[in-house]
Amino acid sequence: MSICIVCSSGGHLAEMLVATSGLDVERYFITFDEPHVRSTLQGEEVCYVVDPHVSVLLYLKNFWQSLKIFLEKRPPVVISNGAGIALMTCLLAKLGGSKLIYIETGARIMTPSRTGKIVYRFADLFIVQWKSLLKHYPGAVYGGPLL
């Protein structure tokens, strides 16, 4: 079994490395291409997609890139903590029959993220790192801080 880990770089990637470090399964990452990402994920299987940020056109490009990867890999499980780069892969996971695990980023202590608010509606498991977010995500599981 190969799981898909999709996230942006920096703190999101650091959290996903901690969250998945104990898993004894093959994994691959979907993220965007930056020098520190290449260095951090050296030796890992990585697929790069464009960071859509707030551009509708870049979201469309991200969708097509994510679709190509999803159809090639057909992951049974997708794990993400956002940000916008992960949205299309999360949607494809749900539509494609994969289990979707979403961990709200630890940077969100009091208010939900935009990606989290969208993905919460259809994630199979939604985990928060701060108890204060349970009021925004009543069906979520409190997992504690990753970092």
UniProtKB/TrEMBL annotation:
Coiled-coil parts of chain: none
Keywords carried by this UniProt record: Endoplasmic reticulum, Membrane, Transmembrane, Transmembrane helix
Transmembrane helix is among the record's keywords: yes
Molecular functions per Gene Ontology: N-acetylglucosaminyldiphosphodolichol N-acetylglucosaminyltransferase activity
An example Gene Ontology biological process: dolichol-linked oligosaccharide biosynthetic process
Protein localization: Endoplasmic reticulum membrane
Record's keyword annotation contains RNA-binding: no
Membrane topology according to the record: Single-pass membrane protein
Gene3D superfamilies per the UniProt record, alphabetical: Glycogen Phosphorylase B
Pfam families in UniProt: Alg14
Principal location listed in the UniProt entry: endoplasmic reticulum
Name the record gives this protein: Oligosaccharide biosynthesis protein Alg14
Native organism: Thiogranum longum
Lineage of source species: Bacteria, Pseudomonadati, Pseudomonadota, Gammaproteobacteria, Chromatiales
